[in-house]
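Protein record
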Amino acid sequence: MESQIELFIIEKVKAKRIELGLSQLALSLRMEMNDSFVSHVESPKKRAKYNINHINILAKVLNCSPKDFLPEFPF
């Protein structure tokens, strides 16, 4: 089960992905990850999560700041 901050980050990345019109597959490929990586992270049935390195890669790929995926205040 994901923690509050993990769920927050997953939802922020998903919202940005959808905003930019990217599929899960497209984002996985842009991150140079396995084809199903993003779908596994976004699925509540899988244990995959984004780590700090993923957040940095996502910021580069999605042309934003890593801070865009983090909450303003701790949970």
The domain at 4-64 is CATH 1.10.260.40 (434 Repressor (Amino-terminal Domain)). The chain has a mean pLDDT of 96.
